[in-house]
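Reopening: structure tokens for the iron/sulfur cluster complex, inputs below.
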Amino acid sequence: MTDRRREEVLIRIEHAGGLATGVSNDVHAETGVPEADVYGVATFYSLLKHPSEIRVCQGLSCHLAGSGEKIDAMSATDTPFLAAACLGRCDEAPASWDPQGENPLPEVHLTAASDELAINLAGVDSLSYEGLAAAQDNGADWVIGELEESGVTGRGGAGFPAHIKWRGVANQPVTERYVVLNADEGEPGTFKDREVILKRPHLVVEGLAIAAQALGANDIYCYVRGEFGAVRDTLEAAMEDATTAGALDTATTWHFVDGHGAYICGEETALLESLEGRRGMPRMKPPFPVEAGFRGAPTLIQNVETIATIPSILTRGGAWFRDLGRTEPGTKLYCVSGHVQRPGVYEAPMGISMAELIDMAGGVVGTLKAFSPGGASSGFLPASMINVALDFGSLQKVGSMLGSAGVVVLNDTVDMAEAALVQAVFFEDESCGQCAPCRIGTQLVRQAIERFRRGDSDALEHIAEIAPGMEQGSICGLGQAASLPLLSAMKYFPNEFESSVHT
Ligand SMILES: Cc1cc2nc3c(=O)[nH]c(=O)nc-3n(C[C@H](O)[C@H](O)[C@H](O)COP(=O)(O)O)c2cc1C
Ligand code: SF4
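Re-run output (same inputs, fresh job):
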């Protein structure tokens, strides 16, 4: 059995339509991977384990829009369904998704087209590939220098400077190198990467081609969220168009891989594990992927939005991009959902205030009470912080994070203990389970909130003691941030946690 054959395991099960009777044995026969191993890996993934059930989203934005009632209504019918963590359709909450259906996405609200936006979702996609041509003419040092000048940081959540990763791969002595696109967008409240690919696929294809060319990678892997079939097709079609138009180097091999329904595979090393045909469990770091990533080789993993900024950085200059931002470099795609008039994806200068962003989304439905600025992991901030700058540094200073900029707006009808419970359920469901503090801690947090809401006023007493253990004893960001929604809700809305008035 070679590692390459293991890589086929998940793809073969997907092609067989999921883990039906006999499939694990067939895949064992085809790949040589032991059947127990095949079965054990596949059961980690929701789309392989339950390939046909309709999913009803129970993410925060969908919860605010009445997904609970939707789930109750579905339960009253004979239709089998699953409550899903987040379907990445927060703009059409309460969302559902049918693995066997068409699932068209509605037109999302976007910022009006403008040349002063780095991504410009409403703009016209083009096959000119001028950024790639400039990269070919000027070489890798120039490309990385422009990225450094631009100050662009990772848009997938961590905000890590892109040029450091690129240089990290470029400096490795090994010639086998990979570029991986992280399009597994799964953070609740986030639905921007899907729109980047649907609206501007050539920016993504060109950005990836620039990365492969500059870093000497022969293979590009695009790992696209499994529930986003049309998104993956759009990206693949754009790559084929660009190839036909002669814009791409034919020496590069493109691979399009479907995610299999596990949020944690958005974490970069879990994604690599999944690409290698294993359970999506994050790896210990170091070594970081730039040194030992896919197949143990130097690998650049970059979020869709980050990659899509590269062509305009090279054609218009790093300084141009940097100056677009207010408090930090560049523009940023903010996903806005929850209690706003026009949920959508808005591109704005990095550091726009929450107040301005709410205006872009048409204002609050009702009276603002709280907001979650960057996905479930960012916790909650109160309405009084409406002027906070939405950037990495400012949000970190107030104990939150920009993350993937999935902004969820909550009005004064929301019970904060209930909102914290929604996030706690998400983290418990999506924990990969390999770190005890995360596996047990996420369960304890969820149980404590439930006990509190059932009338046990002391139920949350020990949460502040559990949280540091989760933060320090967890390998990845999921376990490290999982207690934040509850702790931040308790901090900013203490009255709601004084006595358990909930039923
Ligand atoms: C629990 C968890 C989930 C994540 N999910 C995503 C995701 O869905 N998409 C993404 O691009 N990055 C996600 N990330 C961040 C990635 O690990 C990684 O930082 C990113 O892909 C690097 O690309 P960037 O530097 O362009 O942001 C996640 C991280 C954690 C800890
Ligand atoms: S922190 Fe949680 S999700 Fe992350 S590796 Fe550990 S158990 Fe898995």
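The chain has a mean pLDDT of 95. The domain at 331-411 is CATH 3.10.20.600 (Ubiquitin-like (UB roll)). Marking as resolved unless the reporter disagrees.
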